[in-house]
Amino acid sequence: MKPFTTYLAHIAADGREQTICDHLAGAARLAQNFAQSFQADDQGELVGGMHDVGKYSQEFQKRIHGDSHRVDHATAGAFECYQRGQPFAAFAIAGHHGGLPDGGAQTDCVDAATFYGRMKRAMQGKLPVYDAWKPEINPPQAYIPDFTRKGLAEGMFFTRMLSSCLVDADYLDTEAFMTGNTRSSDRCASIEQLWDRLCAYTAGWFPPVREINRQRCAILERCIKEGENRSRGLFSLTVPTGGGKTIASLAFALSHARQHGLDRVIYVIPYTSIIEQTAAVFREVLGSENVLEHHSNVLYDLEGEADTRNIHLAQATENWDMPVVVTTAVQFFESLYACRSSQCRKLHNIANSVVIFDEAQMMPVPYLRPCVHAIAQLVAHYRVSAVLCTATQPALQPIFQEFLPDHPITELCPQSTCEWEIFHRVTFAQAGGLEWSALANRLNGHKQVLCIVNTRKGAQELFTRLAGDGCFHLSTLMHPAHRRAQLTEIRNRLITGRTCRVVSTSLIEAGVDVDFPAVYREIAGLDSILQAAGRCNREGKRDAKDSVVTIFQSEERTPPLFSKSIGAGQEVMQKYEDLMSREAIHDYFCRLLDLTGTDAQDKQKILHRIQTEFFPFRSIARDFHLIDNQTNTIYIPVGDGEGLIARLLSGEHSRNLFRQLGQYGVSVYQQHFEALDEAGALEIVSDGTAILRDLSLYSEQTGLSLELDFGKGLFI
After folding, report:
1. Do residues 439 and 467 make contact, with C-beta atoms less than 8 angstroms apart?
2. Range of the structural domain that residue 681 is part of
3. 295 band by pLDDT with thresholds 50, 70 and 90
4. Which conformational region is residue 180 in: left (phi greater than 0), alpha (psi within -120 to 50 degrees), or beta?
5. How many domains does the chain contain in total?
6. What is the dihedral of CA 398, 401, 407, 409, to 10 degrees?
7. Does residue 467 lie within any of the structural domains?
8. Domain stops at, among 420, 451, 481
């Protein structure tokens, strides 16, 4: 066979050919543009223009023409950049298909999958010969930003952002060639147009007709003014529950983005239940075509009759190229510590944005320091304005001061902005210890009441003691579609004044929009108690003295997980008369962080490893998981779930199917899973997926049972 003299990057299904030179030029232009948002356009041009020089080998050209042998084409471009003193570009290119590698050590052998192992392989001439790139490609002299020299942590974060630029550029240029179409950039409204829509939406709020609305409008106006007047930086937005923080934070974000030429607004929210609620509000205000809701429960179905909007949104989940993105804390932070190309692809679009961390107090303590470190990097070097948004502001100033000494946290809504007492719509009462039966008697005496307990087992125990119609249970032992249906019925009953007694775990606390005249809360941390209080007299239609939040100790042993937060909360409740004051909340979080200690705020030693090891991308990605995945998912064949499971059993294993199945899945701990399996209640299919076959164990009222027929009780 004659050697190839025309070097191709891609061949389309219709036979069209794209040369490597053309692909590299296209990817370089895109990556340069992406990296411009953090002053690294030279680096973007370099990685885009060099990432595929390994395709200039005869071996790769054989493969693109039909040979089945795999060819490593990424190491060549990485090696060329490494030789030119461009380590960040070298890492980004090395990982642009298989994911960012661990750096390894200079003693690594040539067979090692580490960066050093691959560079050693190239140095020893163990790559296919690819010299044909030299007459066609002229790599630019790329400036390396000064801040990357501050330490390994800054360099590692920069590498991941640069990798994002390359991966997105590579995919987009390849997609444009293969399909013959370039993605349209004008499908969405501009920030200015979104601002106009927000103004039109809130115009009817003025002049406010009730006192509580007057206070909400004062908060809104303050946030708009702060957005216009403040330089980019780090902010907190402390708004009392019911103060309208969702719209107020959006108003700050859009006014701030207008002022500083920022590209998008990203909302980071701890729970999918809050995301769905928040995204629905934003779609109403801004238009559904401008809001991307990206989390595991959302599916943009491209099978069958996919419309233009669904295609656009599905594509936007890949790289977050939308003006408003609403996502989970898990998606956001795990992407920032990821190594896989598909996870990193969207990261460059976080730069030059306003990022709102809603319910900021929910950042998990075992990963608190790495999360704060990531926010600090974005604010310091990537033109991000970050807002910690909550009614119960965590005391994170000392940690931010450590990582971001030149950016103090600025409060957007000082206490003088509004009369906080207007939002004090409840009275707290202490009930001491209550057995389940005594507590149930109290709840049965209310027509409408919410009781929040600490465990799923406790929720089921208490619910069985409630009497009469209109009693509801909520916990994660119910699949998401089941919970959503229950919440819809609960809201309808509250609005129409019908009987509504609800027992729930803490899933109802953060951001779920319900309004009960009375709330009971099992003893917990002060933040949980105040979040529970936010579900009582939410609209301020009753006197505070008639809207009582009762704190009690149940007969159940306190789970160790809650011991520190309960301890800190009890100390603060003894010290302060006004539990909702900013002083009490700040004191609580200071005590809680002191009790947990610095080491417990980074349990996997993520930051120590980043600061002392050579770019350990893969090992960090393996260990950084905000939710400890020590659970198993069981799919429940009820409702639409029955048909979805039938598709699974017929052999379908698409990503779309599993996303839909997620609405009918219940996560259980290993002990519970094994007990169900031993009882013969599960069908385990070949890939390990579990299906509940004994549907007598799934109740329409309480979800998956914790008590099996053979009498074994499970404490969950």
Report:
1. no
2. 631-704
3. low
4. left
5. 4
6. 0
7. yes
8. 420
